[in-house]
Every structure is written in structure tokens, then in C-alpha cells.
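## retry 2 of 3
previous attempt timed out at serialization; input unchanged, resubmitting
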Amino acid sequence: MLTIDRRLLLASLSACLLPPGTAFGAPSGASAARLGAARDFNFAGLVARAKKSASQPYKAPEPRADLIRDIHYDAVQKIKFRPDHALRTGGPYSAAFFHLSRYSHEPVMLHVVEKGQAREILYGPDYFDYAGSGLDTQKLAGLGFSGFRFLEQGQKPGDWLAFQGASYFRSSGQDSQYGISARGIAINTAGPGTEEFPRFSEFWLEENGPVVTVYALLDGPSITGAYQFDATKSPNNAVVMNVHCELFCRAGVARLGVAPLTSMYWYGENERRKAADWRPEIHDSDGLALWTGKGERIWRPLINPPRVQTNAFQDESPKGFGLMQRDREFADYQDDGAHYNKRPGLWVEPKGDWGAGSVELVEIPTEEETMDNIVAYWRPKAEAKAGDRLSFDYRLYWQNSEPAYPKTIARVVATRLGRGGIPGQSPWPRDTQKFVVDFTGGPLSQMAPRFDIAPVVTASRGKIEKPYVLKVIGTDRWRAAFDLKLDGNQPVDLRLFLKLGDKTLSETWLYQYFP
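## retry succeeded, writing output
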């Protein structure tokens, strides 16, 4: 299982910030993005290319290790994109390009599309300022770009969407802070065989007013694909992206991951024993949210497991899933550099009927924040076979919370663990663990304190003891607590929700506990 080095990725993202006044085609001035000859382009033609490619043997990109050997972390930070080579077509956005490096080492072809005509964006080392990097630009003449990013115009232009490395892409979301990534497709993630990382080898960029469209050609040993991404910024600064993909299988795929999300979780308030750093919490996402085909809302806090762990949440015709960041206060992290409280969540809304399958959550152990170690995706029940053609449509929301969360259901806002028994009473039971789960919103928001709300708790093994629910006075939170008594060190699956009589008051909390 490959993990992403976040420190290096963020360094490359910061390497092409543009100064104010630049903007997506030819900016003012004599020097601009150089374009090749015009050629007809449409999505149907891109689909035909992907289909034809799937019928031919896979050809891996040629390695360029000799050219990028010296483009290490420090050099990446010193390479700056030159604003007079930005791409713009007169709309509200500009496009800047990423330089190749040790960490993003496979070049991609870029094109701009206007009125059904595509023109290649011709690479040259003069797109970048290498001052202080120590690099010989003459050796970089045939290098190529590693990706691109979109920026807004204005006095303080900010970038909000970036594609770089394999099929990864990301948005800075509502609070203009990069974090979680999406991927075009996942192949055999955490499976018994080798994981594949199909790559976007070519992109076509088109701007239609406030909508940016990215077309992409996917290529890999087992699969090819044609993608269309239509992205726009909503009035609340969230980024909404409609995705359509046509996939063609070169070979059978045992574990196909649709709409994959990749994030980082080291520890949160639920895993204080993992807190080796002085900051209270460190994560890009703190939970997996699910909206099942039957309408149940589920929250599964993330964990940092002792070994690679995959959980499958079986479903049919899912309404949505996402890796979210619910802890959004500075006090949660005390981090004035990484700004984890501003990291966006990423919600997937399937369009059409995705049928039977499961949302899979992969959690990989980590001892630092530099590696992405969390993956979530939809896995269709039917296994993909060589020669299959698959099509998927979905919408991505890069924002702080799940879209259109129902006002009729309370949601989980904190999960805490500690030793069982009664605080201050000794000896405390060493075979017992206490779980405390806080809820807010929905029918609980205006409810006065009462003692007839019931926690419905189940465990895959062990014994649930002393469950109760109370309102935390002076707040809008309701707290459910229980003790779990068990033997052995095998993991335990827990489930909890709140009820008042026959009425369900909350989403369902799921947890996997490793004693």
C-alpha cells in the first residue's frame, strides 16, 4: 500500500503561487503560455481513445530519473512559476503549472480547449524561475509539466483546485486550506496483490463562465478511462464538482475502488494514547460519514490501528459517503501552521443507481503526520473483468460538513475513551473501558434536560455496563456513556444510537476498538 508524503506534496503545491493581478489563456504582455496547433476535440473522441488503448498492451511512461535527480525537497521550494506564462481565456480563473521533481516524476500533456478546438500547452523551462535552486535549466528543456492548478483573480489570488501525481486531485475548500485528496480510481488497495496507481496522462482544460471543466485520459496496467470534471465555487466558497467517467478494463480487477478519497489521521481525542506530539489532535479527517441506501446516517470515527485494517460497510444504492473533518476549532489542534481546523471534508454523492456493493475504509498505522494513511471508496459487488466497460457519475463536495444534513437527526461531535468505573473510585476495574460519545443538533438542540433518552448500545464481544445519557449543562451537547468489560486483545466492533421511545434521535455511531 503506497502512502503519499504530504510534506513533499504540499511543498510542490506551494511552488507556483502567482502574485496579484495575474489570471485562465494569455495574460497581458508579450510572453504567455505557448500553444500548439488547433485540433478538434470532444469527450466522445476521448472515450474512443480510452477504449482503443484498453485493447492494446500497457506502455509505462519512460523514466526520467537522470533529469530530476537533483530536484529534491529544497529545490522544489525554490522553483517558482512565472506569472507571465499563466494560462487564461478571459474568464475568472487562471491556470499555473507544476514542475516535475523526485516526488512528482511523471510528465503529463496539457491542452486548452476553446469552441471545440484543443491546443497543446507547450512546455519550456522558461515557465519557471529557478533562482537559488542550483539547477541547470539547459538540461530541463524536454522535461514537461507534472500537473496544474487553478487560481482566482483579485488582490490576493488563491488557488482552489489542483491535479498532480498519478490520478490525484484536491481542492482547498471553504477555508482555502488543502488537505484531503480524491483519486480517479483505486485498484487493489490494501488487497492481497500489488496495488496499481493508474495515472492521468493527458488533460484538457476548458472554462465556461464560472465552471471549469477538466477532461482527463486515464491509463494503467489494468484499466483505462475518460474523465470529465465540471467544477465550480458555490456562494459559501465550497467547491462542487460533477464527475463522469467511462472505464475500460484491460485485465480483471479484484478490488475496484470508485470515487476514492485519501486522507491523513494520526490521532484525535479518541486516541490520546497515540498523542506523541504536543498538539491535542492531528488529522485531516476525523471520521467516515455514510448515508445508506435505506436512509440510515452513520458516523465511524477514524482510528490509527496497530496493523493495516480494512472495513467494508455493505450497502445498495448508497446516497453518499465522505471523509469529514468535524473538529473545526483552533483549540482542537492548537496548530497555527498546518491549520487542521480549516481542512475541508470531501463528500461523494452518487448520481444514478450504483447497485450493490460496499463502502470500504482502509486505515494504515502511522507514527507521523507526513503520510496519507486513510482511504475510502465504493467497491461494486460485481468484480470487474477484462473487456468490461463501466460508467459512473457522482458529485464531489469539498466543504466543511456533509451537504444537506437532515435537521431531524443529531450527529456525533466527539468520541472519548478512558478507564472504566466511577471517577475517583478505586480500585478501578482494569478489564473495563469507558466510552463517552457527544451528540448535538437535530431534535436534541432545543430539548430540555431529561433522563428518558436511551442509548442503544451493542458490542461484537464483551459486556456493556452502566449505559446512560445526559445533557451537558451549559452546552447544546448530549452525552452518552457506557463501560465495556471484556477479556483478551481481539478488536471489538461497537454500535450506538439514541432513542426516545420509538423515535430515533441520532445518527448511528460505529467504532472499532483495539484493547
